[in-house]
TrEMBL record:
InterPro entries linked to this entry: GH, GH13_cat_dom, Glyco_hydro_b, O16G_dom_2
Species: Enterococcus cecorum
Source species taxonomy: Bacteria, Bacillati, Bacillota, Bacilli, Lactobacillales
GO biological process: oligosaccharide catabolic process
Protein name in the entry: Alpha,alpha-phosphotrehalase
SUPFAM superfamilies attached to this UniProt entry: (Trans)glycosidases, Glycosyl hydrolase domain
Length: 553
C-alpha cells in the first residue's frame, strides 16, 4: 500500500468526553481523565481518538450546540490541558480528531447574538424568515420533533433549526460563513489536530424557497471550497463526514480518490435496518438478507472509487451488542466478538465507540426522570401529546435512547464504575461489577483482547484494507460469509448472526485456508478442517487466511 493510503489502515476510537473519565471529582468526564487513559488506548492499538464536541457550549444537546468554536468548554478543562492531550497522543502515535458541528451553532454563539441584533456583518449568518399571515413560514418538522421554525421576539422573525430550537442553522450560502468556518478548521490544525469529523455535513447545502430544502450539489460545492481553504492543504489530516442520507453515487462524489472532498463518510443505510430510527422508535428484527444486500452494494460500489466508515454504533445510537447481538449473559461475549469480526473484516475504516471493546450494554431504564438526552426528552413529550401510554413510551426509549451509549465508561468494579468518586452526571449501568476494563484486560479470552487482536491483524495484513469483497452466501438467512481478496492474500469471513446453530453446505463454496486467524470460540487451530458441511454454533465467527501461491488445506 502506498504512503498516500496509509490512513486507510487506521483504527479510530470514539470518546464521549463527558462519560469517559472524571479526574476532578465533579461527576463529569474531562480532558485530564482522557489523558490518564492514553496508555490504555495505546495498548489497545488504536491510531486516532475522535472526541465528540469539547467546545464551549450551554449543553442543551451535550455539546452539539457550540457557543464558541475556538474555546474549550470549562467543564472539560483548559486549552493548555487540551494541548497536553495532543502532545501525549503524538508521543503514543495517536492523533486527535475533533468533531466540528458546522450545520448549526448554539443560540448562545456570538454570531447568533449579533444576528439577533441585526449587526450587518452577521445579519445573514443564519436563516431568517417572516411568518405567513401570522402562521409559521412552512410546515417542516425538525429532526428532534416540532417545527423547524422558532420565533424571535427581539428580531421579530423566525429562524430555522434542523434540530433543537437552541441550535439555529448557519446560512452556508453566505460566503462569510464559509470563510469563518475554514478559519476555525485552520486554527485547530495549527494546534496539532490530525482529524476532523463533520457533523450532519450533508445538511449544509440549503435552498431557501417556500420551504427550506437541501441541495446535495450545493453541499458538494461548499465542501470542496472548505477543503481547498483548510484541511486539503495537509496530507496528514484525516476527514470524515456524517452524511446519513448519502446514496452510493454521492458517497463516491464525497470520497473519490482523485477529486474527493472528504477522506471517508458515515452513511446510515445499515443503521436503519431495525427501524428504531423511524418516528415510532419501535425496534424490528434485522432482515439479514437485506443487510447483506446493502453490505454488498457498498463494498463493491466504493471499491477503488471511494471510502466508507465501518461502525455499528456511536454516541447517537444504542449499544451495539444490545441492538444487533444479544446482551443476555450467555450470549453477550460471543455476539460482541461476532460484531467486532464484521467491523474489522469489511473494507473501510473501523470506528470503535468507547465501551464496545468490553461489551457494554444498554441501561435498564425504569423512569423518564433517568433520561438526559434532548432527543429522548422531546420524544417523551411528543408521544405523551399523542396519547401513547407512558409504559409504552418507556419501552421504546429503552431500545432507542441515545443515553444508552452515554452512560459512564465502566473502568472497574469500584463505586461508580471507577469513572468517578462522586455520583456521575448520568447513571452508571449496574452491570459494571462484572463488565469493566479492569477485568477485561486481564482475561485473555475477553472481548477487549479480541478487539486488540483484530487491530493487530488490520495493521499486519494489507488485505483487510484493500481486498475486494465477494459475497458467498447471499441467500442464507442466518449466516454472513464473504471473501476479501487482493493479489497476495485471501480472507474468508464466516459469521453466524443468530443464537441458534446454523449449517453451511460446502458443495459450492471454497473454504480453503492456510490458517485460522481468529475465532470467538476456542478452536484448536491445527484441528480445524471442513469436509462436506460446517456447523456453526450460536454467534460463531471466524476469519480464515490464505496466502496465494502457497499450499493450503
Amino acid at each position: 500500500m502506498n504512503k498516500v493510503d496509509d490512513w486507510k489502515t487506521k483504527v479510530i476510537y470514539q470518546i464521549y468526553p463527558k462519560s469517559f473519565k472524571d479526574s476532578n471529582h465533579d461527576g463529569l468526564g474531562d480532558l485530564n481523565g482522557i489523558i490518564s487513559k492514553i496508555d490504555y488506548l495505546s495498548n489497545l492499538g488504536i491510531n486516532m481518538i475522535w472526541l465528540t464536541p469539547i467546545f464551549k457550549s450551554p449543553n442543551k444537546d451535550n455539546g452539539y450546540d457550540v457557543a464558541d468554536y475556538l474555546e474549550i468548554d470549562p467543564a472539560f478543562g483548559t486549552l493548555e490541558e487540551f494541548e497536553k492531550l495532543v502532545a501525549l497522543g503524538t508521543e503514543s502515535n495517536i492523533g486527535i480528531m475533533l468533531d466540528m458541528v458546522f450545520n448549526h451553532t448554539s443560540d448562545q454563539h456570538q454570531w447568533f447574538q449579533q444576528s439577533l441584533n441585526r449587526n450587518p456583518v452577521y445579519d445573514d449568518f443564519y436563516i431568517w424568515r417572516d411568518g405567513v399571515k401570522g402562521q409559521l413560514p412552512s410546515d417542516e418538522v425538525a429532526f428532534f420533533g416540532g417545527s423547524v421554525w422558532e420565533y424571535s421576539e427581539k428580531r421579530q422573525q423566525y429562524y430555522y433549526h434542523s434540530f433543537d430550537k437552541s441550535q439555529p442553522d448557519l446560512n452556508w450560502a453566505n460566503p462569510q460563513v464559509r470563510k469563518s468556518l475554514s478559519e476555525v478548521v485552520n486554527y485547530w490544525i495549527n494546534k496539532g489536530i490530525k482529524g476532523f469529523r463533520f457533523d450532519a455535513i450533508d445538511n449544509i447545502g440549503k435552498v431557501i424557497g417556500e420551504k427550506v430544502t437541501t441541495d446535495v450539489n450545493l453541499t458538494h460545492q461548499y465542501l470542496s471550497e472548505l477543503r481547498a481553504n483548510s484541511f486539503g492543504k495537509y496530507s496528514d489530516v484525516v476527514t470524515v463526514g456524517e452524511t446519513g442520507s448519502a446514496d452510493l453515487a454521492n458517497a463516491m462524489r464525497y470520497t473519490n480518490p482523485d477529486t474527493k472532498e472528504l477522506d471517508m463518510i458515515f452513511q446510515f443505510e445499515l443503521m436503519n435496518l431495525d427501524g428504531i430510527r423511524n418516528g415510532d422508535w419501535q425496534q424490528r428484527p434485522v432482515d439479514l438478507l437485506e443487510y447483506k444486500r446493502i453490505v454488498k452494494k457498498w463494498q463493491e460500489g466504493l471499491s477503488g472509487k471511494g471510502w466508507n466508515s465501518q461502525f455499528f454504533g456511536n454516541h447517537d445510537f444504542p449499544r451495539i451488542v444490545s441492538r444487533f447481538g444479544s446482551d443476555a449473559s450467555s450470549d453477550r461475549i460471543l455476539s460482541s466478538k461476532m460484531l467486532a469480526t464484521l467491523l474489522f473484516a469489511l473494507q473501510g475504516t473501523p470506528y470503535i465507540y468507547q465501551g464496545d471493546e468490553i461489551g457494554m450494554t444498554n441501561y435498564p431504564w425504569e423512569s423518564f426522570e433517568q433520561f438526559n438526552d434532548v432527543e429522548s426528552l422531546n420524544f417523551i413529550e411528543i408521544q405523551k401529546n399523542k396519547g401513547l401510554a407512558e409504559a409504552e413510551i418507556l419501552e421504546r426509549l429503552k431500545v432507542n435512547s441515545r443515553d444508552n451509549a452515554r452512560t459512564p465508561m465502566q473502568w472497574s468494579s469500584d463505586q461508580f464504575a471507577g469513572f468517578s468518586d462522586v455520583k456521575p452526571w448520568l447513571g452508571e449501568n449496574p452491570n459494571y461489577h462484572s463488565i469493566n476494563v479492569a477485568e477485561s484486560t486481564q482475561d485473555p479470552n475477553s472481548i477487549y483482547n479480541f478487539y486488540k487482536k483484530l487491530i493487530e491483524y488490520k495493521k499486519e495484513f494489507q488485505v483487510f484494507s484493500d481486498g475486494d469483497y465477494h459475497d458467498l452466501l447471499p441467500e442464507d438467512e442466518n449466516i454472513i460469509a464473504f471473501k476479501r481478496e487482493n493479489n497476495q492474500e485471501v480472507l474468508t469471513v464466516i459469521c453466524n448472526w443468530s443464537n441458534e446453530k446454523a449449517t453451511i453446505d460446502l458443495k459450492s463454496i471454497d473454504l480453503s485456508f492456510d490458517k485460522l486467524l481468529i475465532s470467538n470460540y476456542q478452536i484448536e487451530k491445527d484441528c480445524l478442517s471442513f469436509n462436506q458441511s460446517v456447523i456453526l454454533r450460536p454467534f460463531e465467527a471466524m476469519i480464515l487466511y490464505k496466502k496465494k501461491g502457497e499450499k493450503h488445506e
